[in-house]
Q: What sequence folds into this?
């Protein structure tokens, strides 16, 4: 059975609690996007927020240094290739509210941040449906070299029809068909990363004038691809693999391929069910599971609640509804506030299922709008460092997750509060690392070697 990250467990109905051994070390990723409005919409209008500086390298370098000071495992960068144009059948609300547009290419930010840090990992989102595997494989191998083995890939299949149209297609494929195509895509990139160059192919022999032995480099021939990988083996070969699917098909895909899985929040009992299902499907492979969270932290509980009230004055309901319409695949402009939502979705189906679980089968737009506490469907954890730490520990113990993807509110003060207040509190409880482990991103996360090992399918392609 794969390790769960727990030294021991005692089963209690509806809960998973620690029973013996060392406590679980909580892990943090910052969850961000190379844009102005990511998850919590409208907070860019707050006078202390600096999200509008998203197109400055200094902003990203400063963020990376802050996260490394806080011993974060990684910076998880989301991305989409289209605009949120489902609400009202146009992109006006997205553009007006800066809902993930304008948006930079996140991969281009990584080298600068890596040069300014030593340990921080970088998980970057790239969709499988809109470019040849050969090109994506080269970019990630390049970044794995430039970061000295600190790059990860969040594998997504896409969910916006606007992205498909941008690529010359009338619409995206059906939900499960997109996963089927992603399976073939991964076979291609695994073959390039792991199977094109043998581990001893590179000689660097100046005396004989031989850089690499051609007998130890081979062409990869698969349907639609006949190529030698252009990049020599990088520290990890295959980047650390993230995936965020929570539908049944998505969980099967994650259990086969992902090393780290990102889940949305919600009711702890439901998250615990998903965690148990993912671990059972992935066994005997070990996986790390991160749940999305938003923290509002003050030096006291009262200060945190004052911050929440201050932030809420800047929330954009239209912005939040715009992103929800895109990710759910439902045009809420077609429904009255109290009219049951009956439309079917071909976007993120697990999000639609989550709505029905949270609000009941007759859920309405009012239910959704009332949930936008900070401009998204993600309710914040609010309190002093001790109160927030209590809740984070409870999440780990009751659900079995390994850590949290922390989305931003007002930048950079929201993450400064985590680094300066929450991290020391967790360290004092023995629930957070005191320093980074050596090695690559994969070695830091799992304590094993830099390369993927069997039974992961990528290992089967290696020479």
A:
């Amino acid at each position: 059975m794969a390790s769960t990250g727990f030294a021991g467990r005692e089963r209690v109905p509806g809960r998973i609690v620690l029973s013996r051994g060392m406590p679980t070390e909580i892990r943090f990723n910052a969850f961000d996007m190379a844009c102005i409005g990511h998850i919590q919409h409208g907070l860019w209008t707050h006078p202390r927020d600096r999200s509008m500086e998203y197109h400055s390298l200094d902003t990203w370098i400063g963020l990376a240094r802050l996260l490394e000071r806080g011993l974060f495992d990684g910076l998880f960068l989301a991305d989409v290739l289209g605009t949120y144009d489902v609400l009202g059948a146009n992109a006006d609300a997205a553009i007006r509210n800066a809902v993930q547009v304008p948006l930079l290419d996140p991969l281009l930010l990584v080298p600068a941040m890596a040069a300014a840090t030593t340990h921080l990992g970088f998980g970057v989102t790239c969709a499988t449906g809109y470019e040849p595997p050969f090109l994506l494989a080269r970019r990630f191998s390049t970044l794995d070299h430039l970061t000295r083995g600190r790059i990860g890939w969040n594998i997504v299949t896409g969910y916006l029809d606007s992205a498909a149209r941008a690529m010359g297609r009338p619409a995206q494929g059906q939900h499960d068909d997109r996963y089927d195509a992603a399976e073939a895509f991964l076979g291609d990139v695994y073959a390039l990363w792991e199977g094109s160059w043998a581990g001893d192919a590179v000689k660097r022999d100046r005396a004989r004038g031989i850089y690499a032995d051609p007998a130890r480099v081979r062409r990869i021939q698969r349907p639609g691809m006949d190529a030698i990988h252009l990049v020599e083996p990088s520290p990890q070969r295959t980047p650390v693999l993230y995936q965020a699917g929570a539908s049944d098909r998505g969980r099967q895909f994650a259990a086969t391929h992902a090393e780290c899985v990102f889940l949305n929040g919600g009711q702890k009992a439901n998250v615990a069910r998903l965690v148990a299902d993912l671990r059972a499907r992935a066994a005997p492979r070990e996986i790390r599971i991160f749940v999305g969270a938003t923290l509002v932290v003050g030096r006291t509980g009262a200060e945190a609640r004052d911050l929440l009230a201050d932030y809420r004055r800047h929330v954009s309901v239209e912005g939040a509804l715009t992103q929800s319409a895109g990710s759910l695949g439902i045009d809420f402009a077609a429904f009255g506030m109290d009219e049951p939502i009956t439309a079917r979705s071909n976007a993120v189906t697990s999000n639609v299922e989550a709505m029905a679980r949270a609000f009941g089968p007759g859920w309405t737009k009012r239910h959704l709008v009332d949930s936008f506490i900070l401009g998204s469907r993600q309710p914040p954890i609010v309190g002093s460092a001790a109160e927030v730490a209590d809740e984070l520990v409870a999440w780990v113990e009751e659900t079995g997750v390994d850590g949290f993807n922390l989305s931003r509110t007002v930048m950079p003060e929201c993450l400064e509060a985590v680094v300066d207040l929450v991290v020391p509190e967790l360290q004092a409880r023995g629930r957070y690392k005191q320093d980074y482990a050596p090695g690559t991103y994969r070695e830091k996360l799992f304590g094993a070697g830099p390369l993927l090992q069997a039974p992961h399918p990528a290992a089967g392609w290696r020479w």
